[in-house]
Amino acid sequence: AGISACFLFNEGGGPFVDLVSRNKISVQGSGVRGKFNFGMGLDCRGANSGASGNAWSRLTTLAPKAIVWRGQIHTSPTAFGSLGGVIYDNGLISPFSSYFIGIRADSAGYFISWNSGGFSNVTDTANSVAFNGTERQVVGNISANSAGTNTGVVEIWENKVRLAVQSLQGVDLTYGTAPQLEIGTDPFALGRDAKSVCRHFYLFNKFLK
To answer: CA 33 to CA 99: how far, in whole Å?
Structure first.
């Protein structure tokens, strides 16, 4: 219960299909579906490489959010890299992201970003597993509701280790008029290379424990 999107990237060809809604997103840049030591995945190595598409209604609710990314980060990006999430409008106007996780600008860990009534917020942390191709699972949790009155937290997890937690007093997520689902790509940072391969990608309308 609560799952809003699931991409396994194991289709034989064509667009990538969300197993929850059956909506489709398309490959971007030099991103390709490839076979790796863990099986099939989305190769997000290379500038603007990954997949994206219009976000559907189940992804743009005011419920709590969780982003789950599983894959390999092969080396530290030279600048911040996208793992994935939902971006505000087309990603080119403030506050840029609705809820999103990525690799820090100094390539020494992760960040989670979200907006609260049009203001951009970021929590970041160092990674616990080296960016050397090791498979990992990165999870971002955001407590949110429509009233901005719940006392909650924002979290970043790597595998079973909670790397960061920040207390907050409610979040009123906003999406603009044309939000996008991005995996490995970020329109605001064209030319960036996430140096990663995504095995699975999930979104939840719940706070994972």
So the answer is: 25
